[in-house]
Amino acid sequence: MRGTEASNLDRTFVLGVGAQKAGTTWLSDYLRADEKYRFGAIKEKEFHVWDRKDLPMFAPPKRRVSTLRSKGQFLLRAMGKFDSVYFRYFGSLLRNGGIAADITPSYAGLSAARYAQINQGFRRQGIQVKTVFMMRDPVSRCVSGFNMSMHKASKNLMAGDVAADRNADAVFLDFIETEGSRMRSDYLSTLAALREGFAPSQIKVLIYENLFEPETIRDFSEFFGVGFFPDRADIKSNVAKKKIQVSDEALSKCALMLRDTYEGIGQEFPQVRSLWRGYQYFR
After folding, report:
1. How far is the CA of 178 from the CAs of 8, 142, 172, 175, 185, in angstroms?
2. By three-state DSSP, how is residue 56 classified?
């Protein structure tokens, strides 16, 4: 069954803002399974438009004309130069209704002013914006992000075997101290900016550790206005290919560094205290 639960909204844009390694690829695949999802020339899940403008520590290298090979790549470069192209692209995709999305985890670092601009840009197009922020146990998120980073580095022949030159714990602790890693783990700042840029009714906060439960899937399916596909809970997306073991001592240091995040999120979302293993380091 595909997309049988109709939404009240005819034209919906989903802005996914992270967190990295918290199920964003799985959610993107879930939305794309609905018959109302609209595909355009840009096939990527992550557009990397607004982070390239505002967050150089997150953004991939600039798109150069000489390296562009498709219409989608040219459109993405145009979006980087002219904000209006972004809104017109999705406006065209959704002119006859449906749902489309840009789920780029590094958007978690955008400002409230940028979120408000995105909201207004789509409002002028007559498109309803739904935002989603997905949170995962901060320590687990850091470990997964670290493994992904090491895998990418080894593919680019930049790192090789981490343990060959340095202790894995030392490399991990350096990684979580980087500006990008700290910002990706700063859930409180992301939530505050989202709540300033969007109305409460436009924001959905999901917790990775219970993301795949039928009740959660039904809830966010209704929020986005897509079909209910509980069987997709068994499908794994973007699983880490390289797993480097770090010690419990290093994990404890990571948790203590992120104490404010644990305390703040635990107050607002008390269920995470039994879902996130990082709390064990504060007992």
Report:
1. 43, 11, 10, 6, 11
2. coil
What is the tens place of the pLDDT at every residue in 68-127? 678 898 899 899 999 999 999 999 999 999 999 999 999 999 999 999 999 999 999 999
Provide DSSP, 60-104: PPPPPGGG--SHHHHHHHHHHH-HHHHHHHHHHHTTTSEEEEEE-
* pLDDT surpasses 60 at 63: no
What is the arrangement of strands in the sheet containing 11-16, beginning at the earlier edge strand? 98-103, 11-16, 128-135, 203-207
Q: For Cα atoms 276, 278, 283, give the angle at the middle one, nearest 5 degrees.
A: 110
DSSP 230-282: GGGGG---S--S------HHHHHHHHHHTHHHHHHHHHH-TTHHHH-GGGGGG
Name, in order, each residue with C-beta under 8 angstroms of 43's C-beta and a sequence gap of 6 or more. 72
With both helix axes pointing from N to C terminus, report the angle between 187-197 and 112-124 in degrees, rounded to the nearest 10: 40
Nearest Cα to Cα of residue 210 among 266, 137, 139, 122 = 137
Residue 14, Cα to own-chain centre: how many angstroms? 11
Q: 160 pLDDT band (50/70/90 cuts)?
A: very low
Instruction: Name residue 205's beta-bridge partners.
Output: 133
Answer for the pair 51, 57: CB distance below 8 angstroms, yes or no.
no
Classified as helix, coil or strand, 45 is coil
Residue-range domains of the chain with CATH: 11-282 (3.40.50.300)
